[in-house]
Design goal:
Rossmann fold, alpha/beta, binds cytidine-5'-triphosphate, 2 domains
Amino acid sequence: MQDLSGKHIVLGLTGGIACYKSAELCRLLTKAGATVQVVMTEAAEQFITPVTMQALSGRPVYGSQWDAREANNMPHINLSREADAIVLAPCSADFIARLVQGRADELLSLLCLARPAERVPLLIAPAMNREMWSHPATQRNLAQVQADGAIALGVGTGDQACGETGDGRMLEPIQLLEDIVAHFQPKLLAGQHVLVTAGPTFEALDPIRGITNHSSGKMGFAIARAAREAGAEVTLIAGPVSQPTPRGVGRIDVLSAQEMLESAVDRAQSATVFVATAAVADWRPASHSEQKIKKDGSGQPPVLHFVENPDILATLAKSQRAQSGALFCVGFAAESENLVAHASAKRERKGIPLLVGNIGPLTFGQDHNSLLLVDANGVRELPRATKLVLARQLVAEIAARLPTRSPP
Ligand code: CTP
């Protein structure tokens, strides 16, 4: 199963230089398993040809409301009924204005107007010059299309084709793909605030060297992404890793276990779920040398002393919020053998409702893993899959265990 298997996307292109990015978006959507039907306005065809989009989507492109290829001559009805979502990328300032007015004099705005709004979402990726973007007319129109039910995916910031710099670029294709995939995920954690620790910590010996481990952070980043896709507000506290921040996730970078603890304690005050995936160093050097520790010529290595690091998970599990049921804590256990026994014992020791076990050497740096869920009722395996797939399954498991909130 791919992220968009079975989904049919109508990809609408309107006039803008960002059309060149839509070719890549089309490719990413099909690679993710979607079928893509491209519809282009006349203005879009000034920027990229229908031939390119047909070749990438594997389907003839539509551009006219009078297209006689449709037996009933109603492409606006047929195309909009087949879709699981309509994505406008790029969506120009003019086209947003057209949507606001409910114009129907060319195929793309006509099919947006004709879409069954309750089951076919309209996602728009605006793209324009920064002055056009910040103009009150555009912002007013954008607010109105959202009030009318469209989902605006935001804009990027940076260099623009016109030579100016600012807000209004179309999001990158990979970001749009992430948003579209997220749109289809069930909102199991809506209203929750999920806090995740990820990656290794780095315990400095001197300004040059320190103690760390091989954790890549991939599992924690996948959980942060999955929780965000499920509708949660997500804060990710990351040790030194080189993973890209998932869309919509707030990220705090830290180095040491002590810094990670301080950030976690602070953020846990408003969190409702805490997932500790970080491979926190158990020990840190008892003292930190301000200067590089040099060889002294004796041939003897320096004697280093260590003190134990705070246990972040155990600290939060003991907090008043966790004890009162307001904060649901999930731990991870990286073991090298005897997974069931070690993971069960660790869950009891840390005083947490759910612990996720895995074999450390088999997972560090990998894109795949398998997980063992241990709770008060016993043990359950999530078989080998990508870390993102496992993260989505874990999110569902967490959601099912959260106390049901009384209706407002
Ligand atoms: N953990 C933590 N702070 C620490 C150590 C661990 O928050 N100082 C969390 C990890 O993020 C993980 C869980 O505790 O969720 C278990 O981590 P692990 O390294 O497997 O266990 P340890 O408690 O360090 O036990 P041991 O090294 O004896 O296996």
